């Protein structure tokens, strides 16, 4: 247990108003205590580590200068908002972060008024904050400030640039803070650059600048169009003197920085001086991911979410997995490399998740055959489509919940042209502690209506390998393979690479009383429940692995429709429009009228927590399936 007196200042901060009562000279100590608090908590209760340590000073400075929650802070990539949570009344509950019924993994307006917008996915902060800034102006709330904090890779997302483009042309007083933790970008040095920074952020300079502007408006010398031209000229002059240029100044957004994002006193000074400036502004800060914890600074990828660890030594507590089935993503990575060695047309594409999806295996062996395109899912799909159009065979791996952001690209840039792109949807189904923004539960329903797609989900690791092999065969067209986060069921997971007949399911077990149809690895849970029900009731249950949602195995479904009056479907996806809906449609269209009970994700957003607990909540665990089957048996 941590000592209550180990956080002398932090334990007195129950809200940002308490923080603002402190003298500015106390802020470095607040930052130190906040950093230690996060290190201490995350060493025992895993979460996003490096990204949160990198924004400690920024978080403290923002809540010190701005009167939150009236002033709005919109976080991008909400995995960097732990310090924000602790400072906004959730300090004592932070030990429940990411736990079932505990604090949410990302900022949520449902949890706190300080959480201004949902931010589990990247790149939405500028658009959302701009909307808030415009709303404040429309309501006459001239004293309300709005800040968008973007960074940690999210500036590569297309939505961020759409927001910037609109911010440059729409009247607003938005402040955008670019948290730049890419250490490949050189820090700003030199007296001239510091002089320009001081001048452009000083209150005296800006009072004079605004006074001259008002006079010029009164005299008719200046209008909005001429003002934009002057800003462009000013930015060009500044770029020439500083010997650097950036896209923001080209968009008529006033640019300040770069400055040290770990100097809380300078941050508060700059934020105070630019706070009331009119028009859109961007403050560029340099930070270090994992700042203040040496091992995290040295290995940012590993320490993004390291699991539990010894905070004193930095030793990570990694479970012994010898003899256990592999992770599905590792089977994907190893199989992709195996296929790429056999087929020189194969390339890999991932939007900023090479380690998470195990495409780093291909990248290491064949760096010229794999592409990390940054947090840009729509681009990843269309980029893959372009390569496929000219003869390559892309395996484009995107987490299921992030593929939602590329829906139009799948339709417009792949499906219409029947391009041979293999879309691998990792983290399909309920994913656990990351919660509703990351659950991959919609893909079966949103992919199913798109023409020309083949949609499949493997029952186990062998099936994943076979589906991947099938997808890269000639003339397959767009091929979707979805699989969950976590481990499979086969320790001996390697098998020969053999083709699967597209649109053909499997009868896993004969039966005569009830037919259970499953798709994907959730079928393994169903198999255990079937075995239990049969032993206890004597009921005979047939088990079918649908394997392909599209095209459906109509021959198998006709067999089921003719022989069974009671059918159970189970899927790790939403019930609305998913696999169960497809079965109901087929039965109705073909004149069958069985009693169909569907098991899956209900029509609500499921909270965060261990996958086994979430499956139980949705009635998708062994006990839930057992209960449904026994109820049907007694009817």
What keywords describe this structure?
635 residues; alpha/beta; five-stranded parallel beta sheet; 25 helices; magnesium; 1-deoxy-D-xylulose-5-phosphate synthase; 1-deoxy-D-xylulose-5-phosphate synthase activity
Description:
With 635 residues, this protein is of the alpha/beta class. The model is unreliable at 183-197 (pLDDT under 50).
Produce a short descriptive summary.
The protein has 635 residues and is an alpha/beta fold.
How are the SSEs ordered, and which strands pair?
Elements: H1 16-20, H2 27-44, H3 50-53, H4 56-65, E1 72-75, H5 82-90, H6 125-138, E2 146-151, H7 158-169, E3 175-180, H8 191-201, H9 203-218, H10 224-242, H11 247-250, E4 254-260, H12 264-274, E5 281-286, H13 294-298, H14 328-342, E6 346-350, H15 360-365, E7 370-372, H16 377-389, E8 393-399, H17 400-403, H18 407-415, E9 422-426, H19 443-447, E10 454-456, H20 461-471, E11 479-482, E12 506-509, E13 514-518, H21 522-537, E14 541-545, E15 548-550, H22 554-563, E16 566-574, H23 579-589, E17 595-601, H24 611-617, H25 622-634
Parallel strand pairs: 1-2, 2-3, 3-5, 4-5, 6-7, 6-8, 8-9, 9-11, 10-11, 13-14, 13-16, 16-17
Antiparallel strand pairs: 10-15, 12-14
Protein name: 1-deoxy-D-xylulose-5-phosphate synthase
Pathway: Metabolic intermediate biosynthesis; 1-deoxy-D-xylulose 5-phosphate biosynthesis; 1-deoxy-D-xylulose 5-phosphate from D-glyceraldehyde 3-phosphate and pyruvate: step 1/1
Enzyme class: transferase
């Amino acid at each position: 247990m941590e000592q209550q007196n180990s956080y002398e200042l932090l334990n007195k901060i129950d809200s940002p108003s308490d923080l603002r009562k402190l003298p500015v000279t106390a802020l470095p100590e607040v930052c130190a205590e906040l950093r230690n608090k996060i290190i201490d908590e995350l060493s025992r209760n895993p979460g996003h580590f490096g990204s949160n340590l990198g924004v400690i000073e920024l978080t403290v400075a923002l809540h010190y200068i701005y009167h939150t929650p009236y002033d709005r802070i919109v976080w991008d990539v909400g995995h960097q908002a732990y310090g924000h949570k602790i400072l906004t009344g959730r300090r004592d509950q932070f030990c429940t972060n990411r736990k079932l019924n505990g604090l949410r993994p990302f900022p949520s307006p449902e949890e706190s008024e300080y959480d201004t917008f949902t931010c589990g996915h990247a790149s939405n902060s500028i658009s959302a904050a701009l909307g808030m800034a415009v709303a404040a102006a429309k309501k006459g709330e001239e004293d309300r400030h709005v800040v968008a904090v973007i960074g940690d890779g999210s500036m590569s997302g297309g939505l961020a640039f759409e927001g910037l483009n609109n911010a440059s042309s729409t009247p607003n007083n938005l402040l955008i803070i670019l948290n730049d933790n890419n250490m490949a970008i050189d820090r700003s040095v030199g007296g001239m650059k510091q002089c320009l920074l001081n001048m452009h952020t000083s209150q005296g300079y800006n009072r004079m600048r605004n006074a001259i502007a008002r006079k010029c408006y009164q005299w008719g010398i200046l209008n909005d169009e001429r003002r934009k031209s002057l800003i462009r000229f000013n930015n060009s002059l500044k770029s020439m003197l500083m010997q650097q240029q950036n896209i923001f100044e080209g968009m008529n957004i006033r640019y300040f920085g770069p400055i040290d994002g770990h100097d809380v006193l300078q941050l508060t000074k700059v934020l105070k001086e630019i706070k009331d400036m009119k028009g859109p502004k961007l403050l560029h800060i340099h930070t270090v991911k994992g700042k203040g914890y040496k091992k995290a600074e040295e290995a940012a990828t590993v320490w993004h979410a390291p699991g539990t660890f010894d905070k004193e030594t930095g030793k990570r507590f990694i479970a012994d997995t010898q003899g256990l089935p592999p992770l599905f993503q590792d089977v994907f990575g190893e199989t992709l490399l195996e296929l790429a060695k056999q087929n020189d047309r194969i390339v890999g594409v991932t939007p900023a998740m090479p380690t998470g999806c195990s495409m780093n295996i291909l990248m290491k062996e064949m760096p010229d055959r794999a592409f990390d395109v940054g947090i840009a899912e729509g681009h990843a799909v269309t980029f893959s489509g372009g390569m496929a159009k000219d003869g390559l065979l892309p395996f484009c791996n995107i987490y299921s919940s992030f593929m939602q952001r590329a829906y139009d690209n799948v339709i417009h840039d792949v499906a219409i042209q029947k391009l041979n792109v293999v879309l691998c949807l990792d983290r399909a189904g309920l994913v656990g502690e990351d919660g509703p923004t990351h659950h991959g539960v919609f893909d079966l329903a949103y992919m199913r209506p798109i023409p020309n797609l083949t949609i499949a989900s493997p029952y186990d690791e062998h099936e994943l390998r076979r589906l991947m092999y099938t997808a890269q065969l000639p003339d397959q067209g767009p091929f979707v393979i979805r699989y969950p986060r976590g481990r499979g069921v086969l320790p001996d997971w390697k098998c020969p690479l053999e083709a699967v007949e597209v649109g053909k399911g499997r009868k896993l077990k004969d039966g005569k009383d009830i037919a259970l149809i499953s798709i994907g690895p959730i079928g393994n849970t169903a198999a255990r429940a079937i075995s239990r029900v049969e032993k206890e009731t004597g009921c005979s249950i047939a088990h079918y692995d649908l394997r392909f949602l599209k095209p459906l195995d109509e021959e198998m479904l006709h067999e089921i429709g003719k022989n069974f009056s009671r059918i159970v479907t189970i899927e790790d996806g939403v019930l609305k429009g998913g696999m169960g809906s497809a079965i109901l449609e087929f039965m109705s269209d073909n004149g069958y009228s069985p009693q169909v009970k569907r098991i899956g994700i209900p029509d609500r957003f499921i909270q965060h927590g261990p996958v086994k607990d979430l499956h139980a909540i949705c009635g998708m665990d062994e006990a839930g399936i057992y209960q449904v089957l026994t109820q049907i048996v007694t009817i």
